[in-house]
Design goal:
Layout (H helix, E strand, L loop, with lengths): L2 E10 L4 E3 L11 H8 L3 E3 L8 H15 L9 E5 L10 H8 L6 E5 L5 H14 L6 E7 L12 H4 L5 E10 L6 E9 L7 E2 L11 H4 L15 H5 L6 E2 L1 H22 L9 E4 L4 H11 L10 H4 L6 H11 L8 E8 L3 E8 L1
Parallel strand pairs: 4-5, 4-6, 11-12
Antiparallel strand pairs: 1-7, 2-3, 6-7, 8-13, 9-10, 12-13
Amino acid sequence: MFKSKIAGIGMYVPSNVVTNNDLLKYMDTSDEWIQERTGIKERRFAHRTDETTTTMGVEAAKIAIERAGITPQDIDFIVFATLSPDYYFPGCGVLLQRAMKMKEIGALDVRNQCSGFVYALSVADQFIKTGMYKNILVVGAEKHSFGLDFTTRGRNISVIFGDGAGAVVLQPADISSSSGILSTHLHSDGEAAEILAMYNPGTHANHWVKEKVADFNSNEIGDMFMSHEMIDNAQNFPFMDGQSVFKKAVVKFPEVIMEALQQNGLQTSDLKMLIPHQANLRIAQFVQQKLKLNDDQVYNNIQKYGNTTAASVPIALCEAWESGKIKEGDLVCLAAFGSGFTWASALLRW
């Protein structure tokens, strides 16, 4: 048996910076309004046609692979997490494999939205532990900007999200090694799935949506996979009940972090760094206060990147490491909560 370790890490964000004030061109909002509710000051938007979820994932992967001291030909499995794939199908895993001219290796796509990267890391961890693979590329990448409603009607959601990618290379380490992934913890509760979801296009024909979402105001709109009526009524954009999501997140975030620590006989004071999914700065601050962590124990970068969903944890982890906030031997916890609902944590020794 082996344990897995992060051998290389990389990130990529587009060069195009979009500030809160830039959004005033499209909607009735303000820098103060956005910062007060989310903590976000700016985000990155990918080039409309030249950058995709896959191309951003490739850029992050190149850095992670180089830092791991290997080549793309050494990668023997891909796990790609995203909610914004290039195509409805096939997934981004095979597109990355093609773009990087890798061997005919397996590619798995994970659709767990905000907790996608931690779920993907957990999957890769199991393959390493059993000895099935030796160099697994785990990617989280998102291109949200292509599918948001940039009007006053959609501002509660569209001001939150940004684009980017992060990647790690997972390799085996001796079971007696002090470094590596100590444990991962995955959970879900689909009871309120529709309060944070993108309904269309989909095959549901409103079967669940009408029952679960009180203000869903369509009649026959959702009975088709895609229609002009859906577009006219803005039914092709994400839906979020922000208050309900917040209430659930501030309960499950601390729970799954403590689950990881307790399983390994550790406590919050042992943590060098908590890397939370960058959903909302207010959520991160609430979790920090509840767990009695100091400012140096929590890494937040939502202020400059927004919520990059599956990419947010690897981007934040990469930045924290690059800036010297994480060093060899440090105890690090990754945690995420999002649509589904799904939530997850991973505890590792760097």
